[in-house]
Write a structure and sequence with these properties.
Elements lengths: L12 H10 L1 E4 L5 H12 L5 E3 L19 E3 L11 H7 L5 H8 L3 E12 L6 E4 L12 E4 L2 E4 L2 E6 L9 E4 L12 H4 L9 E2 L7 E5 L4 E4 L7 E10 L22 H7 L8 E3 L5 E3 L7
Antiparallel strand pairs: 1-11, 2-3, 3-4, 4-13, 5-12, 6-7, 8-11, 8-13, 9-10, 9-12, 14-15
Bound molecules: 2-oxoglutaric acid and fe (ii) ion (FE2).
């Protein structure tokens, strides 16, 4: 599970093996201490911009039960006043994540959903397990491998701003479940049986977890002494959009303040003439006939 903290220039063979095998990857130390500080400071200065997660019902008397909703979310980070928006804008096409996304999805991917910040405090209930294990192919959440190349549908990048220790709860996955063929049973959804198939991920601030949305995942009730805090970016191949709501086909004016790569991430889904982001952060437009 260990990424090489010294080298984010490419997704190395160990990381490819682990992501293909497990459907998720932990990259240690992806963010520098100053980046973690800037993100935490921005959140601390905007504590009024939060809302409770609507608690999923039906958790009474299950292992996921808790005293309060699973998360408090922050929202609108990309358009907060300067300097608070900047550390979030800087994550959009962060140079350390580019090789991972280019390898997992192929070049040409985009942000899906709004960026999100999850926080949980002690007593927060868990989140039922979910993922693509319905036994049916879902074209937006999938994992495929062919001829040396991996391809993924929706992937989630979780940038951790606080530590997660063993026994704290939070993100828990079923390694390998991105390749599951049978529908997920309720004893998995509610973490009721077969504890041996679940893997809780322990993390340090600055670590990144990337998981394929087709990998069965959920959250155990938060029991950590500290707040759980992580920034979530969801990315999807260039031809798709997953989240509902109002859909803008023209980039809003404030995006003029962004770099070319950051704007490319926010473009709507299309193929022809799209800016693709190279592993080194440069953008290129490739003729369609050259493939991707
Ligand atoms: O990390 C968590 O608590 C679960 C998040 C989740 O389900 C997701 O990002 O898709
Ligand atoms: Fe999820």
């Amino acid at each position: 599970m260990l990424g090489d903290p010294e080298d984010f220039a490419m997704m190395n063979d160990r990381e490819k093996y682990l992501y293909d095998l497990q459907g998720f990857l932990v990259v240690r130390g992806l963010l520098a201490a100053e980046e973690i500080r800037a993100l935490n400071d921005a959140l601390d200065a905007n504590l009024d911009k939060t809302s409770d997660h609507v608690p999923p019902g039906g958790l009474e008397n299950t292992a996921l039960e808790g005293d309060k909703s699973p998360y408090v979310h922050f929202s609108g980070m990309l358009t907060w006043d300067q300097p608070w928006c900047q550390p979030f804008r800087d994550l959009l096409a962060h140079k350390n994540i580019l090789p991972y996304l280019n390898t997992m999805m192929g070049r040409g991917w985009k942000l899906d959903h709004n960026i999100d910040v999850l926080t949980s405090t002690p007593g927060a209930q868990g989140l039922p397990f979910h993922g693509n294990s319905t036994g049916m192919f879902a074209g937006s959440t999938y994992y495929m491998y062919d001829d040396g190349r991996m391809r993924s549908g929706l992937v989630v990048c979780q940038f951790y701003l606080t530590d997660v220790n063993d026994g704290d709860g939070g993100l828990t996955v079923i390694p390998g479940s991105h390749k599951a063929n049978f529908a997920m049973p309720d004893y998995v959804r509610y973490y009721e049986d077969h504890p041996e198939i679940f893997h809780h991920i322990s993390l340090k601030a600055g670590d990144l977890v990337i998981f394929n949305e087709a990998t069965t995942h959920g959250a155990l009730p938060w029991k950590g002494k500290n707040e759980r805090r992580c920034v979530l970016h969801r990315y999807i191949p260039k031809y798709m959009h997953y989240a509902g709501g109002i859909y803008e086909t023209r980039l809003p004016e404030w995006t003029e303040e962004l770099t070319e790569a950051q704007r490319a991430v926010l473009e709507p889904p299309y193929i022809y003439g799209r800016s693709l982001i190279e592993d080194d952060g440069k953008t290129v437009v490739r003729p369609h006939r050259e493939g991707f």
